[in-house]
Each structure stands twice: as C-alpha cells, then as structure tokens.
Design brief:
With 142 residues, the protein is an alpha+beta fold. The protein is 15% helix and 31% strand.
C-alpha cells in the first residue's frame, strides 16, 4: 500500500504533504526515487529490484551506457507471476504486458494511461545484452 510522508509547517502547526511513495506493482514493496549517475531519474523497488519509469526515461535507459548497474540490486522478495496483470504505481490503471520487439522473449509492463513502464529485476540488463542464449529464446517468435 502506498503511503505519504508529512511534515509540520513552521509556525503554523499545519501538516503539509511532502511526497507520495508508490507501491511496487510486482511485490507490493515501496518504490523509492533513484537517480542513475547519468542523471536519469526513476523509481526502484528495494524488495524485488523492479524499476518504474516514464516512457522517455525508458528510452534513455536503453540508450545510455552503464544503466545495467540499476539491475545490480539483489532480489530479497519474490513478486507475482509475470502472467498476472499489475496496477500502474503512478495512476493505478491496469498495465498491459508487451513483448519487447528486438527480443520478444522479454515482456515489459506498460501503462496505457500514463505510459509508465515497469521492468522486473534483470530485464533492463537482458534488453541491453543480446546473447546467443537470447537468440535461441527468440526462435519461437521468428
């Protein structure tokens, strides 16, 4: 479940909303803000290692060298089966699972409302490193 952090406003005793922490669609852990060394902002789940970002950020992740390091977080918690549809952490609409065209064995979750993208742990690295094993995995889709 998502939660909000609040702070007391100086001198007024009023509570102001600071930021909203989104819930990971895969394992229900908290998504926290993360900035890659190249200045790319996204949200990462501390439990399952999933990544949530905008469509523009997703393109930047694919084209920027070294972003595979975002997948370095070890999984401490399992998520739902990838065949289950998940809710978008940004707008709560159902996300749709798409095959990643250059490597159709990879399935990514994309929100049709806000166009947010959720990548399970390891998917970004898999997208950026095409191996002989990936070629065999893709044979049924050719």
């Amino acid at each position: 479940m998502a939660y909000c952090r609040f702070r007391m406003s100086a001198g007024h005793g009023m509570i102001q909303r600071m930021e909203r922490s989104a819930t990971c669609p895969r394992c229900a852990g908290a998504l926290g803000p993360h900035t890659h060394a190249a200045g790319i902002d996204l949200e990462r789940c501390c439990d399952c290692g999933g990544l949530f970002c905008t469509s523009e950020t997703f393109q930047a992740l694919l084209t920027t060298d070294g972003t595979e390091s975002l997948d370095a977080l070890p999984r401490t918690k399992g998520g739902t089966d990838h065949t289950d549809s998940v809710d978008c952490p940004q707008c709560a609409k159902k996300m749709v699972m798409y095959r990643y065209p250059p490597q159709p064995h990879i399935h990514i979750d994309r929100c049709v409302e806000c166009l947010g993208v959720f990548l399970d742990a390891g998917e970004l690295t898999d997208m950026k490193r095409y191996t002989l094993l990936d070629w065999f995995r893709d044979l049924p889709y050719r």
